[in-house]
Design a protein that fits this description.
Length: about 280
């Protein structure tokens, strides 16, 4: 757990990006798209207007999961693929805290894939931002669940031949209440999407196309092929799914805003450790 609270910021009603910028310097590769996502999240938190001590950023393992240390909010750097259950437990125990979960395509869709499905299904009021670079950047460039089937690499010569995971369609099918896609280098539009995601009730999912220039330098061409804000938002899940499956995978914007009620807060006394322990005392 990391805490980088800025006391003077907590006494104000208006915040700026700097209020959510910690003294820890990011160690991502120069040019990594995650820098843009970090700035977008900091901008979004400033606009939302809650002080750093009322926000928690939870992550798993991977390049993008280093992000909590770079904010002044509470941070939890968890284990591989387990960011969502940690975030879910935190939100149910402390519904007063704004919980944002961050991670990458490997962390979120491979080892964390089952948690992703059930987080969408449960619809707890948290926001999940996934930085998708379609590669395992921290572990030397292996294909990830979203890597194109024919992407040639040293780890998979000629490609894997496996159809890529479709995060947005799967999120919709599993029950996510807000589904959107952004681009890491479009910082201000991405920040606006994240603001809407946080403010929308229930489980909000934001996929961010975030180039990895070290292992996939060709992804820098994304800035030329992105179809910015080219999607029309709908509240119809089937319609949103059809649009996602039929649209260019470079299309950005908010695809779906649902009206499912978020998962109820934990019952009173649910987190009473002494009471729970007493129930298991043998011979009492």
């Amino acid at each position: 757990m990391t805490v980088h609270e800025t006391p003077q910021a907590c006494l104000r009603d208006v915040f700026t990006l700097k209020d959510f910028k910690s003294s820890v310097d990011p160690i991502w590769c120069s040019g990594c798209g995650d820098f843009g996502v970090l700035q977008a999240i900091q901008r979004a938190l400033a606009e939302i207007g809650r002080p750093p001590h009322e926000v928690a950023v939870v992550s798993g393992i991977g390049c993008s999961s280093r992000l909590p240390a770079y904010t002044t909010a509470y941070g939890f750097h968890g284990v591989h693929g387990r960011a969502l259950p940690v975030a879910t437990g935190l939100k149910l125990a402390r519904p007063d805290i704004e919980v944002i979960t961050v991670g990458g395509d490997g962390d979120g869709y491979s080892i964390g894939g089952n948690h992703f499905l059930h987080a969408c299904r449960r619809n707890v009021n948290i926001t999940y931002v996934v930085m998708d670079n379609r590669v395992y950047g921290m572990t030397k460039g292996q294909p990830s669940p979203t890597t194109e089937a024919d992407w040639d690499s040293d780890a998979a010569p000629g490609g894997t031949g496996v159809k890529p995971f479709s995060p947005l369609a799967i999120a919709l099918a599993a029950g996510a209440n807000f589904v959107a896609r952004g681009f890491a280098l479009d910082v201000k539009p991405l920040a606006s999407i994240i603001v809407e995601a946080v403010r929308h009730p229930g489980f909000s999912f934001v996929e961010v196309l975030s180039p990895c220039i070290t292992f996939r330098p060709e992804e820098m061409e994304w800035k030329k092929t992105i179809e910015r804000n080219s999607v029309e938002t709908t509240g119809d899940r089937a319609e949103a799914t059809a649009r996602i499956l039929g649209s260019n995978e470079m299309a950005t914007g908010i695809f779906f805003k649902g009206d499912r009620g978020p998962y109820a807060e934990a019952p009173k006394g649910h987190g009473d450790a002494e009471r729970i322990a007493a129930e298991f005392v043998v011979g009492a």
